[in-house]
């Protein structure tokens, strides 16, 4: 079951974010093609133009590249570039709020499950 779209951001941005998570997970691998616009539109039940805009967003961030007549392909180094961007975003935006909440709740490292998955 897919996570529903929200009103927090445009759908194309939400799709770009979902595809970026897959890229972080290595799907598809660097050098491999992404699913076609039609396949993604069908999978996510959205307009192909919305999918195209999401793919353009990924291309603007240097994660994928269009190959004329072939589709979009994951660029070499995309996963590492994305990982660096996401780490920086986490440390700048998410971590300070999370750290403050942990402090308010009196939680320390010993209270957290750091299990490997």
Give me a quick take on this structure.
Helices cover 54% and strands 7% of the residues. With 117 residues, the chain is mainly α.
Summarize the structure in words.
The radius of gyration is 17 Å and the shape is elongated. The chain is built from four helices and two strands, in the order H-H-H-E-E-H. The chain has a domain at 11-78: Arc Repressor Mutant, subunit A, CATH 1.10.10.10. It has helices spanning 11-24, 37-44, 48-60, 78-105; strands at residues 64-67, 71-74. Helix 1 (11-24) packs across helix 3 (48-60) and helix 2 crosses helix 3. It has 117 residues and is mostly helical.
CATH topology of the domain at 11-78: Arc Repressor Mutant, subunit A
Helix/strand/pairing class, anyone? mainly alpha
Helix content: 40-55%
Specify the CATH homologous superfamily of the domain at 11-78.
Winged helix-like DNA-binding domain superfamily/Winged helix DNA-binding domain
CATH class of the domain at 11-78: Mainly Alpha
Spatial separation of the terminal alpha carbons: 22 Å
Could you say what the CATH architecture of the domain at 11-78 is? Orthogonal Bundle
Shape: elongated
Which blocks of ≥5 consecutive residues have pLDDT under 50?
none
Portion of residues in beta strands equals 5-15%
Helix and strand element order: HHHEEH
Largest sheet: 2 strands, antiparallel
Biggest β-sheet: strands ordered side by side in the sheet: 1-2
């Amino acid at each position: 079951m897919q996570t529903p779209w929200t009103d927090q951001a445009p759908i194309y941005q939400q799709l770009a974010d979902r595809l970026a998570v897959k890229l972080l997970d290595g799907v598809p691998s660097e050098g491999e093609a992404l699913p076609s616009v039609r396949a993604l539109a069908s999978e996510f039940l959205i307009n192909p133009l919305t999918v195209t805009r999401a793919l353009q967003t990924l291309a603007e961030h240097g994660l994928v590249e269009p190959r004329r007549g072939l589709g979009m392909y994951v660029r070499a180094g995309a996963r590492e570039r994305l990982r660096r961007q996401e780490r920086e975003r986490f440390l700048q935006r998410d971590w300070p709020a999370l750290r403050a909440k942990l402090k308010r709740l009196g939680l320390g490292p010993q209270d957290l499950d750091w299990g490997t998955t």
